[in-house]
Amino acid sequence: MTAISPAVAPPRRVVRLARFRDLALLPAILVLLLVGVLIDPVFLTATNLTNVMQQQTELALVVLAEALILISGKFDLSLESVVGLAPALAVVLVVPAAAGGFGTGWATALAVPLCLLVGAAVGAFNGLLILRLRLSAFIVTLGMLIVLRGLQIGITGGQNLFELPPSVLYLGSAVWLGLPASVWMTGLLFAAGIGVLGYLRQGRALYAIGGNVDAARAAGVRTDRVVWTVLIVGGMLAALAGLLMTGRLGSVAAAQGDGMIFTVFAAAVIGGISMDGGKGTLFGALCGVLVLGLINNILTLAGVSAQWIQAIYGLVILVALMLARLTTGKAQD
Questions:
Q1: What domains does the chain contain, in order, with CATH numbers?
Q2: Binning pLDDT at 50, 70 and 90, where does residue 54 land?
Q3: What is the mean pLDDT of residues 258-278?
């Protein structure tokens, strides 16, 4: 038992140190709020801020998934394709053939669990290739991204699916206590993730694996099992994000989730998640999502063309890297 403490204790100190950098985004959020008010008084209305939060829930869930995987020292490029494929496959399995389905006649109540199961299956298969066959996470998840995107286009026939089960529509449109249900679910999942990483042994083990996998293994941590679990959870979170997006928009787009992974990495990086593993917090990642959401909303209210937003996101990443170098003396690898 005494041999486990040295390997697991350092990640807890890393978490405490990382929180100072996470809090640095709070002044940036306040500045963005002020800028938004100056650009358009509508910005600070409850309706607009609620819309911003709801529109960012899907991105936030994928960032949560990617942040957990990055902290463990891996990464998953295929999450954006899960956002599209998982709800598309679930929908075509339960809707009639006349609505674009397979005609299987499955109960519509199965749509949500089927979607989550698809996400879990993708994460488990990625884990099999990465952990058992020792293949590169970059190559595996890049290949999976392409495969899943092709499957999505093939399943939907390149067309949007509009006839959706009531359970899918509910998740994306329901309102609980004055806020969209998706906002409550996202907040609860982030709170659960923060609690696990900050207070449970499994969370500290995740930091230990990302910091030094050999030391974690020597300390008795079952590294492959932990990382495999994180990959499965990540796939399920991405599938849930796809469900929320589908319910909010009222359809499954043929290209749903396409290009989303770039914004996911932007939010994670500016939120302090290290691409090298073992560093960063979920609170920081959530702040990164809020920063990008506020920037997007401000640019929209200011009449800036949507084509420029991706360029601005890229600039934000570069600025975040420079700030990381200035504040810590070490770049985010």
A1: 4-306 (1.10.3470)
A2: very high
A3: 88
